[in-house]
Amino acid sequence: MSATTPLSVLALSGGVGGAKLTLGLSDVMDSERLNVLVNTADDFRHFGLQVCPDIDTVVYTLAGLSNSEQGWGLADETFHALKGLERLGGDTWFQLGDFDLATHLWRSERLAGGHDLLQVTHDLAVRLGVHSRIHPMSADPVSTLVCCEQGELPFQHYFVREQCAPSVTGFRFEGIDQARPNEQVLALLREQPLAAIIVCPSNPFVSIDPILQLPGLWTTLKESPTPVVLVCPIVAGQALKGPAAKMMTELGVPVTALGVAEYYCGRYPGLLNHFVIDTSDAKLAADIEQMGLRVTVTPTVMKTRQDKAQLASTVLAVAAEG
Amino acid sequence: MSATTPLSVLALSGGVGGAKLTLGLSDVMDSERLNVLVNTADDFRHFGLQVCPDIDTVVYTLAGLSNSEQGWGLADETFHALKGLERLGGDTWFQLGDFDLATHLWRSERLAGGHDLLQVTHDLAVRLGVHSRIHPMSADPVSTLVCCEQGELPFQHYFVREQCAPSVTGFRFEGIDQARPNEQVLALLREQPLAAIIVCPSNPFVSIDPILQLPGLWTTLKESPTPVVLVCPIVAGQALKGPAAKMMTELGVPVTALGVAEYYCGRYPGLLNHFVIDTSDAKLAADIEQMGLRVTVTPTVMKTRQDKAQLASTVLAVAAEG
């Protein structure tokens, strides 16, 4: 673990895919200088508790507690409370693990006690031994609603209960117009030069868009002198995890790295400087460069810890080129 | 399991000791005709969840799910969420089991959804296979505060966190003046003759008093034609479970069956008709009879299921004498 840069890094992340790259980053840089801006539009209340799936995935991953086989939740997790809920005929569509439940109980109590999500998330990370700074995208509530033919579904209902089966026509981020971007991240962007702004290989529509759609955020990132590097979440026409490819198909976005680049450049013109694609998509590099992006072709599939560190090093090197 | 009576029975109960006798009653009578009026003044919110210790003890016991060795909680219980809370530095003084947590999650969600505690408790019992009717003493919140030299402590703080160490000077039942007694139990008392009203061997101060202090309740019981039989919670100068003896000492009440009888007769004159004491206290029978009570001397220590059924049969027989 070498400190390749004395400057801070800001990584935008959703859940599993983003968490993998943040783990790689924390391995190859001074982990205390890694700032992760995490999507909270998936957050929801379940049994009266505040559940923050993406924050928890990032925190558990950086704490070395995640279930790396399953891709979500905690290693050595048990589901006894869930079995109890099943016995009572309660809702069991969301897989509430017992250790995970402790996080939700603890967080909900602290939120009810008047602490905001920024402070509570910081404390959660510290108590689980995470040295990087985990920043919820906002302390204000934002809720992703998935627009389908049958109407709008709260994200977790679409994602977990309906297992992404409904065909998607769009998304709505309830509350986003009133949500203030995380002020600590705005201060970070204002006050110091950064080594890189990294958009992790997370779902463009439901992980990264909610962050970028916060009032003023994407233009602030765009205006920053720091290079913005996106790691493409689509590899060889497939999403490695989750419904990104299915959503792209349903929305008429080509399910390729080029489609991803076009989506981001169309929606956030001038934001991205670098685009990192997998070696299997090398033939698309020229077309993406045509859009004014610098393209790096490198293995982006992160199976091992070494894969993650290698990709993280490449991304930091790309950003260092300016 | 024989139906010794076609009439309904009403039993007033706190937690462990009362639950034992209700289990015996459910074994020796038509269990569907057993109505248990349970103390809820121990109820409290923990991590935002509504915890009802006495209701749960009675329900778990009648459902055959209780941890009979430990005296509270569920058999085969695990404490993984609690370990998670410990890891986060959260409160762990209340032993939240994982299966038990499911009950609190389920109940809290239903209460938040607009159901009242009467309906939620009924559903809980039904879903766990209990045939008897479990009645919270009130749908309205009542909270026992334990008065000590250092001030007032919420009951669970005194009972669990402080392990009953503070010396008690009295009790206050916050909210009791506004609490309406369980209307289903009032209807039961109005509409049909009962075989017996049984005061279970529960703590007089913190289990039975909150029930009897509900506006109008003890006088309604007193005016009922049904015999009221109390099973003494003090045996040979000791409480079999919990802090009753310690509290009696601190309050200057003699720690004997006679002390218990004097306490009830002084506070609720004319309420009790029968007083059931343990064989080890046989010598006190004459003094208790002097107070106008009919006394039955019988083994009251309930270790085995057979003990519980035997005591229950005796209590029903005593009531049947009129």
Give an overview of the whole structure.
The structure is a homodimer of 322-residue chains. In chain A, 53% of the residues are buried. Chain A has helices at residues 16-28, 53-62, 80-87, 98-112, 117-127, 155-161, 183-191, 204-212, 217-223, 244-251, 257-267, 285-289, 305-320, and strands at residues 8-13, 34-38, 44-46, 49-51, 133-136, 143-148, 151-154, 168-174, 194-199, 228-231, 234-235, 238-239, 274-277, 294-297. With 322 residues, the first copy, chain A, is α/β, with parallel strands linked by helices. In chain A, helix 1 (16-28) runs parallel beside helix 2. The first copy, chain A, is built from 13 helices and 14 strands. In chain A, the strands form four sheets. A seven-stranded parallel sheet of chain A has the order 5-2-1-9-10-13-14, sandwiched between helices. Chain A has a three-stranded antiparallel sheet with strand order 7-6-8. The first copy, chain A, is 40% helix and 19% strand. At the A-B interface, helix 3 and helix 4 of A face helix 3 and helix 4 of B.
What's the layout of helices and strands?
2 copies of one chain form a homodimer.
Chain A: E1 8-13, H1 16-28, E2 34-38, E3 44-46, E4 49-51, H2 53-62, H3 80-87, H4 98-112, H5 117-127, E5 133-136, E6 143-148, E7 151-154, H6 155-161, E8 168-174, H7 183-191, E9 194-199, H8 204-212, H9 217-223, E10 228-231, E11 234-235, E12 238-239, H10 244-251, H11 257-267, E13 274-277, H12 285-289, E14 294-297, H13 305-320
Parallel strand pairs in A: 1-2, 1-9, 2-5, 9-10, 10-13, 13-14
Antiparallel strand pairs in A: 3-4, 6-7, 6-8, 11-12
Helix pairs in contact in A: 1-2, 1-13, 4-5
